[in-house]
Amino acid sequence: MRAAVVALVLLALVISNSPTDARRKGEENWKQRYRKWKDSEEQDHLNGGLIGTDEAAAAKLHREEQNSVYDAPSEDELWRQKIEEKKKRQRGEVEHKQKPTSEITAWHEEKWRRQQEQAVQTSPYFQRQKRRQPRDYHPEHHNGRNVRMSIPDHTKVAEMARYIVHNSNWTAVAYTSRQPGTYGLPMADIFSISDGLKDNSTGIPYMYISPKDTGVQDLAKDGRCSMIMSLSQSDYCRQEGLDPEDPRCGHVILTGKLKTVKNGTEEAARAEKLFFDRHPQLRNMPKDHKFRFAKLKISQILVQDYFGGPAQPTLAEYFAAKPEVSSGPKDPIPEAQAELLPGASSDSQKWLRPME
Ligand SMILES: *[C@@H]1O[C@H](CO)[C@@H](O)[C@H](O)[C@H]1NC(C)=O
Ligand SMILES: *[C@@H]1O[C@H](CO)[C@@H](O)[C@H](O)[C@H]1NC(C)=O
Ligand SMILES: *[C@@H]1O[C@H](CO)[C@@H](O)[C@H](O)[C@H]1NC(C)=O
């Protein structure tokens, strides 16, 4: 009898503490915690995340920032430091710091420059340049269409910038995130753009944007951004056998501030005309998305279209330049000449040879 009772008690103990039971309890516990966390997360999101008032959002983002693993100083802190520094400068306590020049860096640059020069001198591309053959784009050679579009010479960086901007239908924009989780970090988005009608380029990328887009929300708080456009967005680089990273597969980076175009103005009417000319599908966006036109107020231009690093045309040069646009049907190129044209070649491999 006693033995039976002891056995029963032991059995009960074993059952209640069995590993499967413990796991079940643990899972239950975990699920509860997860549900609680998820509820609070959702509540948070509704209260202060993307939908709530600015104050609530700011408070939440501030909390995020406090907990952030990237302990970047807050904007307030940066301002405080700046003011402190200015005061110190005024009191003459800080000397102007000179950047130390490194001989090693200079030596590397010189070596790189010479290598590039040598590579360029011996390249078939350079030989073509010497023969004054324009770097032409011949789609008709590839798809039988009788049109001819030439891209500007690589020495004409402002024209090249205008050409790329004019021939890009979209851009990747880089800005600073103000969203939970990525607050203060670099973030990217894509906007459809148009800088003008087919034969009438302005050089200014116009966009059609909605505040539902988190990128637009962030840019509304801080409009500073960079937009990149590349020849690889058209067929050019692929047909020339150029890798998108090849410097000859040109790209341009416009840095500036995003500005909305005031509704009802002449500029808004112009933006509407030139934007929907290229993006007719975007005409009928939902009303409640509050789409409106915006443009980039350009402050800096960076053009990479050849070896030796990017060039920086001035704003005056950029706006004075005209992009060479497709000039309509021309005579087809004779067969013999077509042979010499830059087709997809393995040449581009040579350019990408690693440096010793
Ligand atoms: C080209 O655009 C400008 C404004 O940017 C405008 O004044 C001019 O009339 C346009 N020309 C044509 C041919 O559309
Ligand atoms: C840009 O859009 C226009 C109009 O939709 C189109 O004709 C053109 O081919 C596009 N360009 C590129 C590079 O995709
Ligand atoms: C802009 O103005 C037009 C009429 O001038 C109006 O139909 C449209 O709703 C306005 N858009 C915004 C975003 O206010």
TrEMBL record:
It holds the Pfam family CREG_beta-barrel. Keywords: Glycoprotein, Secreted, Signal. The keyword Signal applies. Residues 117-126 have a biased composition (Polar residues). The keyword Signal applies. Residues 152-319 form the CREG-like beta-barrel domain. It comes from the Eukaryota. Residues 1-22 form the signal peptide. GO terms for cellular component: cytoplasm; endomembrane system; extracellular space. Residues 134-143 have a biased composition (Basic and acidic residues). Its main location: secreted. SUPFAM superfamilies: FMN-binding split barrel. Belongs to the CREG family. This is CREG-like beta-barrel domain-containing protein. It comes from Megalurothrips usitatus.
